[in-house]
């Protein structure tokens, strides 16, 4: 079987002897790669399990930062990749159209277009590239230059994308000058409401800040090309905004002729239980960026835009590898599983439904743990996009306890990832079964007891 609800198997001290050797080489030879507080060197995947070079097998609750939607080597994805690689591995999309890529565009756009409202796709290689494409398109289409992003956001590390990114200054320090004409507004975080607001009023507070402060004192609304926002904020803490915020932001954009860009790189592709995370709200953007989970780990990204917005001249933007056919084949196969054309044993009709079911279970169990452990201040999310925030006795962020819990989980065989100032994100592969989720929870319980 592809997956089974076994326990992780830790056979050596972590890191083991082989991992230690590779970690040493990595530190000597690579530039900035390794950032985790715990060492792990993967060798073999199997569903939601990863075995390291020393034979230690871990359960995966991070999916390579919300990437490995279908696990590490799903047979359906492997087959699609092999078949396409055996046909041809690359032809430049700027030279020749390709069957698989046009099909991929059609199947992605099917999730967003509406009758009478056609959309188009542009393919790149990474989330940052999709974001760059979105900024370029928004400027080109509107003839305006200013872009507004949010505090706590992450949009990537190329120049446009780091400028938009509003999380950590280390991404920007020493790299300037950045892109001109970018402003940041607070993100409506109901757990830590900005601008003196409350959980209920934080959305409206951000909207009035835009209208009454930013547009009046910093940048006139009619010079703003676009507002880019994660419909659910990822790196910033897995935060879900109030239900009416995005529809009201849409209305604000419409009043001022501003394009609305939803960065779905982390929360999209079924992770939240719906295809796009914005589909939890009654709202439609003008532009969408997608990457990460789109092809189960093969490098491909997409920028989708309304046809009425995708008005840049032919050939004005493109890239050599963007829309690579092998990656596109992996994306199509990933869509098969997400949409239920191909089913995964133990995961119901399709992986979005599975994400919702298993995510609801995990969130309910974490809320019980929050009742038991006062240092868990908040449990939030949708589907398998879940944030768990650690707080001190005053309710302030407690990154130390978060790090201790994260390491305690890792030592017991659960791969996990931080986000925000003091949260852990649960972003497992969407093929995680209820039984496997239960195994993960057992580890979480042991780890929390150990750091209490
Ligand atoms: N947007 C969001 C919302 C992201 O989470 C990320 C990556 N964490 C990016 C963009 C950048 O993606 P990439 O690392 O593929 O460039």
TrEMBL record:
PROSITE patterns according to UniProt: AA_TRANSFER_CLASS_3
Assigned keywords, A-Z: Aminotransferase, Pyridoxal phosphate, Transferase
Keyword Transferase part of the UniProt annotation: yes
E.C. number(s) listed in UniProt: 2.6.1.19
Cofactor: pyridoxal 5'-phosphate
Domain of life: Bacteria
Claim: Transferase is one of the keywords in the record: yes
Enzyme class: transferase
UniProt-listed Pfam families: Aminotran_3
Annotated GO MF terms: 4-aminobutyrate:2-oxoglutarate transaminase activity; identical protein binding; pyridoxal phosphate binding
NCBIfam families reported for this sequence: PRK05769.1
Family membership: Belongs to the class-III pyridoxal-phosphate-dependent aminotransferase family.
Protein name stated in the entry: 4-aminobutyrate aminotransferase
Protein's organism: Deinobacterium chartae
